[in-house]
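Researcher: Please generate the 3D structure of the following complex. Treat every line as part of one assembly.
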Amino acid sequence: MTAGPQTLPLSFVRRDAVPPAPAPALVSGPLAWLRANLFSSPGNAALTLIALAIVVLVAPPLLRFLVVDAVWSGQNRDACRPEVVGHPVGACWAFVADKINYFVYGSYPIEERWRPNVFFALMALGVGWLLWLDAPRRDLGAAYFFVAFPVASFVLLSGVPALGLAKVPTSLWGGMLVTLVVSLVGIVASLPLGILLALGRRSRLPIVRLFCVIFIEFWRGVPLITVLFMANVMLPLFLPGDVSVDRLVRPLVGIALFSAAYMAEVVRGGLQAIPRGQAEGAMSLGLSPWHRMRLVILPQALRIVIPGIVNSFISLFKDTSLVSIVGIFDFIRTIESARVDPAWAAPTVVMTGYAFAALFYFVFCFGMSRYALFVERRLASGQKR
Amino acid sequence: MTASTLTAPATLPDIDPDLAPQNTSATRLASAPEAVTLEKVNKWYGAFHVLRDVDLTVRRGERIVICGPSGSGKSTLIRCINRLEEHQAGRIVVDGIELTNDLKRIDEIRREVGMVFQHFNLFPHLTVLENCTLAPIWVKKMPKAEAEAVAMRYLTRVKIPNQAAKYPGQLSGGQQQRVAIARSLCMSPKIMLFDEPTSALDPEMVKEVLDTMVGLADEGMTMLCVTHEMGFARQVADRVIFMDEGQIVESNTPEAFFRAPQHERTKLFLSQILH
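Model: Done. Output below.
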């Protein structure tokens, strides 16, 4: 037992297991964590210090502006003017509080605003149902979200006089309502369309493949702003005179097709990552091409490209703010028009408006990103390869 | 490292005349109906002639082992039988159905023919049980509960019923291959194709898979196995086929094949794999 390696006899049999020993202090514990993660090398230590310095420089003024010096209530610009209140003024949240209904609904008639509220509730229900992975009857949830919910939303928001719901023209819609409608339609339409295009691009039929390639390359080759202008200005030229497409639907279709082209390439990347053996395994069992794709290939391919899909969703969500340039009053546009209100002319109002917009977009995008991460981890824990 | 030496009995062609089935099998098979018939089958990959005038008749219940050097076309041959590869000339008839471009017939044949691959080709996103029930549910329209009962029966047969809820990635190679066999059996195939089922396995796992295959053979399954496990060939095969350069060079009972190979190429090949 005491024999070292030098004196080990030629024939040797160990009879006892070496008992596990506790790790030394520098291998586990908070000190070890610090050393491993923040100060593992001189370069890393320098970066840690620089990052710390930036936090020290940036965080206090930001906090002072957004929280400490901020004005939380008030009726008009006087609440946010330093010469009136007599101390330095940070963010003018009173402005946001005063305009919040405009930011949420745009010019949607005040007496009808319960309709967008019901829409928000229906949307929250559908999104929650689909995103909660252990929810009961998720198939029903999908049917609700992709069929019942869009129909109900359309009836609710634009109104059907026969049902006692007054028509509300889309020119009155605005704010977060429009931003959510546009991005929801874009997201819901672009994924299935993108999957179809990706499959088409890998099809063995030359005509289908050619069509998909042309479609994808066309939309990817044109800037979104151009698409929106074209949808707005040129589409009516191609349609018969008595047919007019709603001014909100035009950019909606443009955005959906635009993001479908990007989605197609993301999905194609996932399809290419699936080994050929998977299709062969499915074929040998007699599964039809449709079942092979739906049950074997696509679930795996989509799982691989979750980061790419969410990336597309996030950028689509933010790109919806471009619809403001074709005259749609989305959330950004409502802030733009509210900030010039003379009743609220105060030095920090503009900054407050933009800070609020940033917060809104950040909450949604960060939420999507974290949710995707959670899904990825959860799927990975089940099936490590 | 040490484990590899333990599995030697499974791979060594130990000569045991009691295990050689050919004496009884000749009479058993003579009257059996034809399960697979290949007539002058030819296939090219581009300009490369992979299969050259291959003729082969497999009777129901017959066990055939196909061996040969790599690139000799043995995998391609059995992959043509369930149309994973397309042949360009000749006739292939499986269970009375001729393979043509008719997709319906191809699906029909694939339902009758199970296949086990070198790299298992299990579906990693589905549990072991779901792997086994997928095809019965979607192809045979079997109710889920029934499909699960069938799957559990076959998983028990390959001795891994307790792994049913796991994902393939959590199993060892040998276990995965046994799941793959169970998955094929769930479709109650009449013919089983094995494409080098043990080549990707760690040595200590070869035996468990071969044992499963021997069990299948004992039950009278029609089997075509591309394998270099000569011990297996000796134990269960009715016929051993040697392929080279896309042709069947020699076909004989395992007894005669190993004791007295006729063709020079066969002798050379055997001398290289049987040390």
